[in-house]
Amino acid sequence: MSEQQPQPAFNIEKIYVRDLSLEIPHAPGIFLERDAPQVNLQLNTRSDTIDKELYEVQVVVTVTAKIKEKVMFLVEAHQAGIFRIQNVADSDIGPVLGIGCPNILFPYLRETISDMVTRAGFPPVILNPVNFEAIYNQSQQRAQSGATETKQ
Length: 152
Prior knowledge:
This protein has helices at residues 90-119, 132-151; strands spanning 9-23, 38-51, 54-67, 70-86. With 152 residues, the chain is α+β, with helices and mostly antiparallel strands. It has one domain: Bacterial Protein-export protein SecB.
């Protein structure tokens, strides 16, 4: 009689905004500018183990809008979630934390950024969809090539 393997389990325990900031360094004059701003976006993900089978994942985005060299606004948001992941092989945890969890958090982050920018008096910034699988694979390749370089 063979013993059955426990089934993998994935649960969202909590989704929350961990950190949120907005700066409008040139207010009120910046609101009188008529030129279209240049918008720059930086996006990162990170994950930490909280406890056995319990992880916090964050998607961090910084949006900077400039008109010429003047910063129109800068908004940064850390959208986070606590996830319970059970009976998943160690080799599969990385993709779950680096791809699956950020895909769950991203729609919340999009709404947070859009809402914050709108409340600041600017037209909404709608973040384009993100391919977290490609980002994860690139970071894995960089880590592997970095490990290869240090060994040589």
